[in-house]
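We store sequence, tokenised fold; for instance:
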Amino acid sequence: HGKMIRVFSMTLPGHENGLPAAKALSVWADDFSKGIDCIGKFLDQAEQAVAFAIREKFADPNKLAFVGLSRGGMIASHLAARVPSCRFLLAFAPLTKLKHAKEFSELKHDPLVESFDLEQIAPALYNRHVRLYIGNHDTRVGTKACFDFAMSLVGSAKEHKVSIPQIELFISPSIGHMGHGTPPEIFQQGAHWIAECLK
């Protein structure tokens, strides 16, 4: 009825212009090696998009959830830390430490790379409902790294005297290349959990 509708399309760095998704982390690492913070730039844009959606009443700030798979789980976690109204975070086989990815083997000690370790944002997520899924032998992103992130979330919740922190970690048999696959039933469990949370 004459009302202008704005549509925003956002694509993770390294996925735009038909780039193969499998090479995205190589694109990230190349940017980081040049001092380009492609992740921070994307998060700034995503945060602005969420603020716009809330301001324009496209999204209910009381029913916000961020979800991601692998590197998308890392992005979702950082975005949740930036958006306090997001109450729910769901990540499947999340990349929790960039330096764990083989693409970043030459940048392990780079301060910019280390700044994206998810354990560093645990204090900003202490009061959220978080559910993580990971394979029991995921050598792509690291099962132990995911466990450490979960424990850092629990620790932050305890420091803030949250009596029953809503942090859940599910470890199941690994599948796929480097144990980094996620079976359909796990995606279904996660989707069901988010649907229940947002009722």
Remarks:
- The beta strands are 64-69, 86-92, 129-135, 167-172.
- The two ends are 30 Å apart (CA to CA).
- Helices lie at 24-33, 38-55, 71-82, 111-114, 143-159, 184-197.
- The mean pLDDT is 92.
